[in-house]
Specification:
The complex is a heterodimer of chains A (262) and B (290). By secondary structure, chain A is α/β, with parallel strands linked by helices. Chain A has ten helices and ten strands. Chain B has one domain. Classes of the chains: A alpha/beta (262), B mainly alpha (290).
């Protein structure tokens, strides 16, 4: 690859939880506009890696570079504002808030009015609020969710909740979008819809995607590069076709059946 | 005149209760924390405003003196909210509730031992400056400001924190500054209520601001409904009126009121207006867009 600088680069990352090593000496990079998949058995450290990248947990040692600048000391909120957005393995919507408010919260980091402005409802506040609502409604329209904009997020069916979580992450205007098992618990029709959605997101928003998924046919079709983790270590990094035939991956993860899922 | 002194007293009490209820609902209802220390903020507002009107500037004209005293009462309480906000960065839920309880005890025992403000004998000779127009004025100001706050990015931020703090952080919500602002605003408003209370009764002592006072505010919030401005108004109104209407029952009032609360928790656990609003309370900014 001839990219001058990776969008994100992790160097010798370690993460220990007490005596347990979740991530061991992990180094990898992701380039702009790439679609990188992460696979590995349960407990391989995939979600921990997401938590490290998004500042949810601090790394025990190692460096994470965002466009060449270290970011491992930044908080989750700061990283979100830098352009790193994520979804969660177990959907984490703001359930009692409306669909629209869920999206607005992601837009809120771009609103600049002060606390005094909010208390006394200065015109600047009203203007920015209107703009944020308009932008959120536009995004909901793209996701065909305008009709449910004022419904509480908890009232949506499962598939829509997944879509809303992706829409909410996109509202942050991310350069890097991390998706933690976006098709978990979905049937093949729903998974195909999400695949279509993610491809559209890549085109429309020119986002870089980093995806954890256990559904191997899905991730092999979607991603142009895969990382394979096992017991916290990186055991393979390459194109899906190479991963499929990599003996280390086969013995550690796929077993003898190429189509098996964890 | 329909409004005799007794009715005016009840109305003023009702509005003060509503202000307290709005203040606590911001932390307990909207932000999802559990504070039992709001009587302490009220006490700080009451004492600091009384110091202004009795000790520091008693000769100033009341029209200038009273609003200044109320603002200083609110500001003192807001400053006291800062340490609690810091503690809320590290703890949540039950643990934070215990911390707010400890805070209440510290403030109360502190006041009991400061002879400058009368120690446990109480603070005497506070001028009667709280009247219906002033109380209404402060009630409306507090209500409108809190409503604006809740229907703003800050309001959404604290509701996001209530729903899921980790997801809120991942969505770029500056959780610490949102908590700090909320604690300060909530304690400011409780301080305003304290200042009004002190200048209504003209006498305050530390035991007016004990855990029972906090419990009263909690009862009003959970009766009216959490995360609801309408609920705060409804809760304060019902609580104040029931308290008066049940006076003839004497000591039985203390049995009937909690019993009503038990019934409410059984049949409407979120309170009368929990998570809902009367339509006039809402700010419909998005109507023009679709």
């Amino acid at each position: 690859m001839n990219f001058p600088q990776p969008l994100l680069q992790a160097c010798h990352l370690h993460k220990n939880f007490g005596g347990q090593q979740s991530i061991i000496d992990l180094s990898f990079h992701i380039n702009e506009k790439e679609c990188l998949g992460i696979i590995g058995p349960n407990g391989a450290g995939k979600t921990t890696l997401f938590n490290l990248i998004t500042g949810m947990v601090p790394a025990s040692s190692g460096i994470i570079l965002w466009q060449g600048h270290p970011i491992e000391k930044k908080s989750g909120a700061q990283l979100a504002r830098l352009g790193i957005a994520r979804t969660f393995q177990n959907i984490r919507l703001f359930k009692q808030l409306s669909v629209l408010e869920n999206i607005q919260i992601a837009y809120d980091s771009q609103l600049t009015y002060s606390v005094l402005g909010s208390l006394f409802s200065f015109s600047q506040k009203n203007l920015q609020e209107k703009k944020s609502i308009a932008a959120a409604m536009d995004l909901l329209a793209m996701f065909e969710m305008t009709d449910v904009a004022h419904e509480p997020a908890s009232s949506l069916p499962y598939g829509f909740q997944r879509r809303l979580e992706i829409a909410r992450a996109l509202a942050l205007n991310p350069r890097l979008l991390l998706l933690d098992e976006p098709v978990a618990g979905m049937n093949s029709t729903e998974a195909a819809k999400i695949m279509e959605l993610l491809r559209w997101i890549q085109k429309e928003f020119s986002s870089t995607l980093l995806i954890i998924e256990h559904h191997l046919p899905f991730i092999m079709e979607l991603c142009n590069r895969l990382l394979v983790l096992n017991f916290g270590s990186l055991i393979a990094d390459g194109a899906p076709s190479q991963i499929k035939t990599n003996p280390a991956v086969i013995s550690a993860y796929l077993g003898n059946d190429n189509d098996s899922e964890e | 005149m329909i409004l005799n002194d007794y009715l005016i007293f009840i109305l003023i009490t009702l509005i003060i209760n509503a202000i307290l209820c709005l203040s606590l609902n911001l932390v307990n209802g909207y932000m999802g924390e559990f504070s039992v220390g709001h009587a302490a903020f009220m006490a700080l507002g009451a004492y600091s405003s009384a110091i202004i009107t009795v000790k520091i500037a008693p000769t100033l004209p009341p029209l200038f003196l009273f609003p200044m005293a109320v603002l200083i009462g609110g500001a003192t309480a807001a400053l006291a909210g800062i340490p609690l906000a810091f503690l809320s960065f590290k703890t949540r839920g039950d643990y934070l509730a215990i911390i707010t309880l400890a805070f209440l005890m510290i403030v109360k025992s502190g006041l009991e031992n400061i002879s400058y403000v009368g120690a446990s004998r109480g603070f005497l000779g506070i001028p009667h400056l709280t009247n219906l127009p002033w109380t209404l004025f402060w009630g409306v100001v507090c209500f409108l400001c809190l409503r604006n706050f809740i229907y703003s990015k800050w309001g959404r931020c604290i509701m996001a924190i209530r729903e899921d703090e980790i997801a809120a952080e991942a969505m770029g919500v500056a959780t610490r500054s949102a908590k700090m602002m909320t604690f300060m605003i909530s304690s400011f408003v409780a301080g305003v209520a304290g200042a009004l209370f002190a200048h209504q009764l003209q006498f305050i002592n530390p035991s007016s601001f004990d855990i029972l006072k906090s419990t009263d505010i909690l009862v009003m919030v959970y009766l009216g409904g959490v995360a609801s401005l309408s609920g705060s108004l409804a809760g304060a109104t019902i609580f104040t009126l029931l308290n008066q209407l049940l006076q003839p029952l004497g000591i039985w009032r203390m049995v009937v009121m909690p019993f009503l609360l038990v019934l409410l928790m059984l049949f409407r656990p979120r309170g009368i207006m929990g998570f809902r609003e009367w339509s006039w309370v809402k700010i419909h900014r998005d109507r023009s867009d679709h």
